[in-house]
Amino acid sequence: MLYWLADFSHGVDGFNLFRYITVRAGGAFFTALVFGFIFGRPLINLLRRKQQNGQPIREDGPQEHLITKAGTPTMGGVLILGALFFSTIFWARIDNPYVLMVLFVTISFGLIGFADDYLKVAKGNSKGVPGRVRMALGLVVAGIAGVWAAMFHPPALADQLALPFLKDTLINLGILYVPFTMLVIVGAANAVNLTDGLDGLAIMPVMIAAATLGVIAYAVGRVDFTEYLEVHYVPGTGELLIIAAGLIGGGLGFLWYNAPPAAVFMGDTGSLALGGALGAIAVATKHEIVLAIVGGLFVLEALSVIIQVLYFKRTGKRVFLMAPIHHHFEKRGWAESQIVIRFWIISLILALIGLATLKVR
User: Fold this and answer.
1) Tens of pLDDT along 8-34?
2) How far is CA 93 from CA 54, 103, 152, 250, 315, in A?
3) Which of 150, 153, 171, 202 lies 20 to 30 A from 125 at CA?
4) Is the pTM of this model over 0.90?
């Protein structure tokens, strides 16, 4: 919204700053951060009043969670989404199709997650929206986003899959492009959801991934950068840096209250929405494969569940003491803080590898 002040400023230098994406990204970050600090405590107090028993804790999970995490309210993702939405509307160009697409995916997955959290709290157990229904709704949202992205990608890139580390290399997916984007977005949403099992575990890797994808979005949205880096130019994606900045600011505001011991959980409201946002940014920037590198921690968490289920059905035995894999390390005796911080370190390393794909060609 502030971008258009430059058009009505009649050349006033101060307002011309709003034309710069980096300036507006900084504004979005601080706006979202302040939003989180202002509304965090009132939201938590409201959730505590509405959720007398807090988020239902899985009975088949680590037994200590039944004691240490009982009574903690959920749906804290509302705080992140509110900060992200407000900062984006305030600082980004809302006529940008990629901004609108990412917001659509984020809010839609947030609503799916909210319904899931609401049913869990209302029923007093860990079963919310049936898995098939949640998956179907997610696929519909992701399918719309895939068509949306393909409509606005340059013709030379439409329906194409770009490969990292290889310059000028594209794979024509044709009619499989939209199903592929559905897999990326829904997969990212559910992978982040599976990661969200310990205080602070999911939100920091999400912010690290968002920062990485924001830099990538800014780079591929500038023709001079793409020529130097020899990556594919996708005009208009630079605005997604503002969404990434808003996500980081809102995430930090949430982490203030989610740091161990957590005063609130993000719930599916936050985890599905944030994962969907990462997937949508990757689709918009043609960096879907890079997302698997940057979000490698989320991939690992999802694979641990898939491997555990398939192996157990086949043999009746378990590969991990418990899945997702962060619970395996809990069973091994690692402290919660050890797991969280070590997983943060892994996320940072993977993010640096992901950024390296911009230059290593």
Assistant:
1) 555 555 667 778 899 999 999 999 999
2) 38, 12, 16, 19, 54
3) 202
4) yes
